[in-house]
Each structure stands twice: as structure tokens, then as C-alpha cells.
Amino acid sequence: MTELTPRRAEIKRHTAETKIEASLLLDGDGTSEISTCLPFLDHMLAQTTRHGHLKLQLSAQGDLHIDAHHTVEDCGIVFGEALLQALGNKAGIARFGYAYAPLDESLARVVVDFSGRSSLTYQVTLAQTVVGGMEADLLREFFQALSNNAKLTLHVDLLRGINAHHQAESVFKAFGLALRMAVMRIGNELPSTKGVL
Predict the structure, then answer these.
(1) Cys bridge to 182: 54, 67, 97, 138, which one at CB 3.0-4.6 A?
(2) Domain 8-182, what fold?
(3) Is 3 exposed, middle or buried (0-12, 13-18, 19+ CB in 10 A)?
């Protein structure tokens, strides 16, 4: 039996606004070392890593003296680029993934398609405009940047919930579970009737 090549990526993004470096292993053990200077974002990314069975190292420094926007968006860019790089030509992957994840009273659904086309449908309204010291609408910016750079069709729906932390965490857990399904190796063929993704 031939050993499968590890699917990994190394990404560096240095701009006038942020300095971000990431290492991603798709077939990981759910462990992470994340430091974005935004503890709530660190916590959310750790949820995705754990439930996606990824291995993620990500460090970010940004212009937080202005606000968190550039840091959150650029973390989405880097995570998206890492997913795309690690997937390579996408031959043999399941391509589609979907998951529901509850956290107490909250329930989220995420559906992904590594279609080669960037598209985000985001139906999430958190119970608070600020959660974990971060503006809640920045979570959409994260997923938009990730979708754009991973060339990923992504549907994110928060179905119910009362507590904003629970709501956000259920979204990131569902995203991890959906990713795990979509990147699973199930064969050798490219999962497209077009012959390209």
C-alpha cells in the first residue's frame, strides 16, 4: 500500500496593515497553535481546527490600534490560501461537505463546495453586535475572505440561538465538520463532470 502524500501549506502574508504566517496540515490531529492578538478569533479558529481534524499554526500581528478589521480579514485570506494550496489539484477529494453543529441552545449549518468558484451566502445574525471583544460583523468578513481565497462556495446559516458566543462557536464548529467531509480522500478522480475545479 502506497503512503499518501501529506497535504500541507505554508503561507506568509506581510502588508502595511498585518503580518500573518500560517502552516496547515489537512490530515492533522485537531491541534492548533493560534495567536492573532484577538483571543475570541483564536478560540473560534481552534474550534474549526479541532472539529476539522486539521493541524494549524497561525500567528498574526495587525493594526489593532485602528480596529480588528484588517487582522480578521487577512486571517481569512491566509486560511483560504492555505486550504487551496494544501488541496493541490483536488483529485480524489469528496469536494462537498455539510454539517450541523449545536452548542447548547444554538444551532448552525454550514455547507461547502470546493468548486473553484468563490461564493458566500451568510445568514448569521448574532444576539450581540460585539462578542468576545470583537465586532460580530467581522466574522462575515473572515468567511468572505476565506471563500474568495480558497475558491470555495460556502453557505453559513445560523438556525437558532440566544447567546452570541454559543452562536458564533456553533458556526465555526459546523465549518470545521463540513471541511473535514469535503477534503476527505475518497478516490483518485477529479470530482467534476467538467474535468476542472
Answers:
(1) 97
(2) Ribosomal Protein S5; domain 2 (3.30.230)
(3) exposed
